[in-house]
Amino acid sequence: MKATKKPVPDFASEAKEALFWQDHDSTEYIDWTTASRGVFPELKPSLKSISIRLPQPMIDRLRAMANERDVPYQSLIKMILAERLAQG
Asked: What are the residue boundaries of the structural domains of the chain, listed by start?
């Protein structure tokens, strides 16, 4: 027989909800065996600008490679980084 779960309280703000979950175990409130993974196809990852210093010859080579592929060089840098990160 399943144990009865406590009702999740209503929260006045996200900050109050965050404080609540810091001190409470969600398994007392939510039956995770019936949970399903959410899919958000329209959600775009947030981007953060960074500044990185690269030698000019490296930038020139990246720009040439990007030009050959007909993509912006910053996009090419992101693709190269993503491929390398996927390799582990």
From this structure: 56-87
